[in-house]
Amino acid sequence: MSLSFDPEQISLPVGHFIGDRLLEAPGLLPMRRPSDGSFHAECPIASEEIVDEAVQTATKALKTSNWGGGRPRERANVLRRWADLMESEAEALAQLEAVSSTRPVGQLVAGDIAVTAEQIRFFAEFADKEGSDLVPTDDEHLGMIMTEPFGVVGAITPWNFPISMAGWKLGPALAAGNAVVLKPSEMTPFSSVFLAQLAVKAGLPAGLINVVLGDGLTTGAAITGHPDIAKVSFTGSTGAGAAIMANVARTGVKPMTLELGGKSPQIVFADADLEQAAAAIAGSMLANAGQACVAGSRLIAHALVAEPLVEAILARMKAVRAGPTWDAATTYSPIISERQRARIHAIVQAACAEGAECLAGGEPMKGSGYFYAPTVLANVKQSSPAISEEIFGPVLTLQTFTTEEEALVLADHPTYGLAAGVFTRDLSRVLRITRALSAGTVWVNGYGRSRDHILPTGGYKHSGIGKDLGREAYHANRRSKSVLIHL
After folding, report:
1. Distance (Å, rounded) from C-alpha 468 to C-alpha 454?
2. Is the whole-model pTM more than 0.90?
3. Does residue 293 carry a catalytic annotation?
4. How confident is the model at residue 333 (pLDDT cuts 50, 70, 90)?
5. Strand 16-18 relative to strand 21-23, pairing
6. Please, what is the average pLDDT of the chain?
7. What is d(CA 76, CA 67) in angstroms, rounded to the nearest whole number?
8. Per-residue DSSP letters for 137-204?
9. pLDDT over threshold 80, residue 318
10. Which residues contact 152 (CB under 8 A, 6 or more apart)?
């Protein structure tokens, strides 16, 4: 059975999900489908009053359900049932996401949804296995480090991987005993609403997940500045992360997890398996058309292998199949909006005007929708925005080196330190380079996250604070209390 569908036949859950009800609200933000540019819905904007209603609903649900204080195994059971429902409703969930996002429906069912269900089960297992500790003291005292939920967590997710990012926030927060008020991107909100509905259907007490739709200036600011939000978790741009920190500081202090922008290098040494490297590098840029914070957009290749490596990358880029996200055969995504595509093109044109050589692409793709051709730029100036700025599109720059020292100088970025890739057969070199790189994640002889959910993700420098995924994400959703008992 084909997963392809007619976007005109999809019923969209337009409204805020508070408690166990979908609250219809007037649409204020026009939404256009990236695949064809057609207007298809209007997104409401949750006011401070609506956000407050969601927070108070979450607070009440925590108290009445005793979600954070009951048997941890019961939390785990509910989360596992929720993951099961994600998989059984995968087609409907994929359609809601594909219709308004950049994610092709076939990749959603086999990838995003399946992986998110795995991650929910992964975090569920922490509920009754991670807890308080007895610590060494003298015989006249008993020392303990107790942990407990924060309470209500405010979560804000981006548009590029809506289901996956919602899972990153909801899974560890709920497993740790918290409630969540979630704001998905105003460009891709519908799958998050459906996820919340599935959670209640799975037995999650109503009110522990509340989804409010809206923009960052109104709805996002109301969440991050709300006095009863105990912790904030955000994935998005570095600029937005800085604005959130400022807004939190305006109303007080609270812990934050911020997974922000990146401009990640991929270093290929002369002894690397070039076919392996080319597949990984091309894949990292073609996936979601480069619209990922960890996109390995800076290729730094040894001068001896740069030419054959780039040829192999270009061959893979030419094989993409662009198409609407509701076509199961589509393998290459559109750009999220006309505005973002125009920004990508402006950066490429500026680099070329300064002397960069465009080896492939360099222009919007013909036809409807916001597609941009996979692009490779060589001879780019180090000061060019193509090197310094997060483009968030399918644009790969090429720089060459001859020594390890040169490679590390090129790889180091003054702003970002989210991820990096290293390709070499020399294990000693791997250890030297990974220790020297200023990046929160380093992939060796491959590029991109695996299904090893135990590995956390998060950046150095302006690429973020704290970690998503892994044991660290669970612990980041609980606070500790030191107890010393005099015997």
Report:
1. 10
2. yes
3. yes
4. very high
5. antiparallel
6. 96
7. 11
8. --TTEEEEEEEEE-SEEEEE--SSSHHHHHHHHHHHHHHTT-EEEEE--TTS-HHHHHHHHHHHHTTP
9. yes
10. 55, 58, 59, 62, 178, 179, 180, 181, 228, 229, 230
Query: Which 8-state DSSP code applies to residue 462?
Result: T
Rounded Cα distance between 99 and 74, Å, is 35
Residues 361-386 have a mean pLDDT of: 95
- The token duo for 112 is 């995003």
Tens-digit pLDDT profile for residues 83-138: 999 999 999 999 999 999 999 999 999 999 999 999 999 999 999 998 889 999 99
Whole-number Å distance between alpha carbons of 333 and 336: 9
Q: Closest by alpha carbon to 5, among 127, 81, 137, 109?
A: 109
Marked catalytic residue, from 43, 293, 358, 390: 293
Closest alpha carbon to 400 in 260, 291, 263, 300: 300
Q: Determine the average pLDDT of the residues in 413-417.
A: 97
What is the chain's Cα-based Rg?
23
pLDDT of res. 27: 84
State residue 388's pLDDT score. 95
Distance, in Å, from the CA atom of 39 to the CA atom of 285, rounded to the nearest integer, reads 28
Both structure tokens of 135: 């610590």
Rounded to an integer, what distance in angstroms lies between the CA atom of residue 86 and that of residue 93? 8
| Mean pLDDT, residues 317-323 taken together | 93
Domains of the chain: 7-260+464-486 (3.40.605.10), 265-455 (3.40.309.10)
Q: What number is the average pLDDT over the span 421-448?
A: 98
Task: Establish whether 352 is a catalytic residue.
Answer: no
Q: Determine which one of 53, 186, 259, 390 is catalytic.
A: 259
Q: What is the largest CA-CA distance in the chain?
A: 77
